Amino acid sequence: MAAAPNLIRKIDNTPLREAVRKVAGTKLPSFNIYSKVAPLRKARRDAMLAGESVGFVPTMGALHAGHLALIRHAAQENRHVYVSIYVNPTQFGVNEDLRSYPQTLAADLEKLRRLNMNYSKEDLRGQITAVFTPTTNVMYPGFQPSSEIDGHGSFVTITPLSLILEGASRPVFFRGVATVCMKLFNIVQPDAVYFGQKDIQQTLVIERMVKDFHLNTRVRVVPTVRENDGLAMSSRNVYLGERRRKVATVLVQALRAVRTAFIDGQTERNHLMAAAQKVISDKLEKQQALPPRARALFEVDYISLADPFNLRELEKVDSRRGAVLSGAIRMLPIEEPQAGENTGTGDGRTPVRLIDNLRLEAVTSILLSSLRRKMITP
Prior knowledge:
37% helix; six-stranded parallel sheet; globular; 9 strands; 12 helices; alpha/beta; disordered N terminus; three-stranded antiparallel sheet
């Protein structure tokens, strides 16, 4: 496999030039960086004419191991991997602070450069050959749509799927996600797009959009990447700090308690949700008993037990069909931060909303019996 060119053909954006200067001293990334549509489309056309596939990983930057896992999957399956880094304003509501979202372009480019160096030593089908870092004027050439629920603009809406769970808490979120993904898919024309299971409702919205609009791409969903203690990796984790970070695992612990109850034979909603509620209540009571200088409080937005295809809430899980168990919590600002305490980015003043999910896999009665035996075997 020929190596990607060790140069940048064109950098036509001042922040990009500054970011590249910061990448590994004088070392240049082994991929091309584009901020305009036309040159990226030319590169994509050249790949198509050469019969070489393109896998696409859309991101908002602040890259972590979860993003890198998506890119690795894309490199395993495609000759070219295109990565976009763009913080999309239309998926932030009017009461959500777009300015607080971490923007780390120089660090992101360095991570991608190092990733390509590693790929060149491995037996992968492809590597990163293009990074797309557009401005909002490029992505919304007419005018930037409004973030109000009834705001004006050219939107893609996928209902009713985008109106429940995350959509109920963030009414314009999936409208913004679907709109920007439609734009990016039209620009890149990828053979496959890669998303993480952590954002499971997002993946279902994208799958529905691709199917309903006959988009010529495949949606690949990659398992959630987690920290050693189970916390799902997220760009927002940098805001947690040490105190909130320790408590933030309550969500995955609650979801895992439900999964254990399901494997143990429970299928009724009230029994399964009781397992989650116990974990949450125990954790919250312990934190509330601590003095403000030591505690980290949180609020539960929702815990959902839903159909794996349409996310409608279930009263009973059909073990032949399975279910999606998902939830969201909000880690509240730190009270009484102590001298020298690691309070995270934003000094602990920013509420941090975390989401996660697990699948209750469809299983046969024979497999369920086997799982139960494994759980009780010493």
